[in-house]
Amino acid sequence: MSYTPQSHVAFGDIWPAGSHNIMLDNIAYLKSQADLLFLTVRNNDASTINLGDPIVLDPSYTSGLAVKMPTAANDLRAFGVVVSTSIASGASGIVAIGGTIQSINVTGAVIFGHSLVTSATAHYAQDSGGGGWGPGVLGFALAAQASGTGTISALISPYPLFYTAAQTIVRNQTKNPPTTTIAITNAISDGTNRLLLLFDSAYTTENASAAVFSGSGFTTLQNSGSTGKVYFSYLLASALATANITHSGTNADGLAAVIVLNGVNQTTPVGTSADANGTSVSPSVVVACSPGDLVIAGFGLQQSLAVCSGRGGGQTNILDIVGGTYGHLVVDYVIATGTSVTFTWTIASSVAWNAVGVAVKSA
User: Fold this and answer.
1) How confident is the model at residue 38 (pLDDT cuts 50, 70, 90)?
2) Domain residue extents for the chain
3) What are phi and psi of 29, to 5 degrees?
4) Are the beta carbons of 109 and 58 closer than 8 angstroms?
5) What is the C-alpha to C-alpha distance for residues 223 and 233, in angstroms, rounded to an integer?
6) Of 159, 219, 264, 267, which has the maximum CB count within 10 A?
7) What SS3 string covers 81-148?
8) 3-state secondary structure of 31
């Protein structure tokens, strides 16, 4: 269900029930039309959320719009900040989701003008380390903080792209480099209708396989290529836990990333995976899908090249990490409108690459 744009959104307006999957065009319309952009939401957290606390969307609540406190840094469900008094668990309160200057609780050093993201400390946002706007950003700091915890002014402007499908990307976590036994340290699995999607990119002919999280093994989608091989796998209905993702093999020089998704079909979670490899400046892969699928694809390199310099139209980057010694791993997504998506990228020089992708199905 999408939200029909209104001419104005007034202070305290209630978002319609069932519209928690926010369409990007509607958000853009609202931001262009509304003098103020505040919403009344439910606190679906077990704890009270305080004035100035950052919040994330909770797509598990389907009777309206619900939020909760983030529990990890760089949560991609970042949604705004509480502007009413404290909101008790199960109660409703007012939050700012864009276009206004508000007070926000922060932890650690914050630089004026930097973007703010969630932190692993309950009730606080943190400096993202730069000034860019992208997935997971809550807004931009309008004051600095040297250290500790405090409250600063910020322009609240959450990035909405990760709510354009029922399948919600919750977060990604990376390890650079992994070890011979650990792919990801302290991976967090939470939310409902969960899916973990693992990209494990090896150096040269090293090989990663047999990934395990909290006692459950991943299902292999692809183990693509030879040089810069990518082990691509998923785990359905992952445990509600924080634990290492372990793997077998000799991948101690590459890069690894896990993407945590909610709202995924628990019977048929993914479509047919795809892989491709070559040696060029233009990695690419074609992924079969259906309209409405959240299609995720990425590539791995043996070399540590500069950040990916270009990508195909409609692709949104999830992560782009360069190894300290070896490797380069890039992952993007597209909301499908047809029966296939062609992912393309541009890299700095012609090297061996391996690309993989899959369509994630909605619950």
Assistant:
1) confident
2) 24-163, 168-360
3) -65, -45
4) no
5) 8
6) 264
7) EECCCCECCCCEEEEECCCEEEEEEEECCECCCCEEEECCCCCCEEECCCCCCCCCCCEEECCCECCC
8) helix
**Listed residue (263, 66, 290) closest to 169, CA to CA:** 263
Residue 232: which of 193, 284, 267, 274 has the closest Cα? 274
DSSP assignments along 177-222, one per residue: S--SSEEEEEEEE-SSS-EEEEEEEPSTT--EEEEEETTEEPEEEE
23 DSSP assignment: -
Contact 279, 299 (CB under 8 A): no
In this prediction the pTM is 0.64
Tokens, residue 351:
């090297």
The CA distance from 140 to 355, in Å, is 34
- Give me 71's structure tokens: 């529990």
At residue 183, φ and ψ (nearest 5 deg) are -85, -45
**Residues 296, 293: Cα–Cα separation, whole Å:** 9
Give the N- to C-terminal CA distance of the chain in Å, as an integer.
14
Q: Which residues face 165 on adjacent strands?
A: none
| Whether the predicted pLDDT of 27 surpasses 70 | no
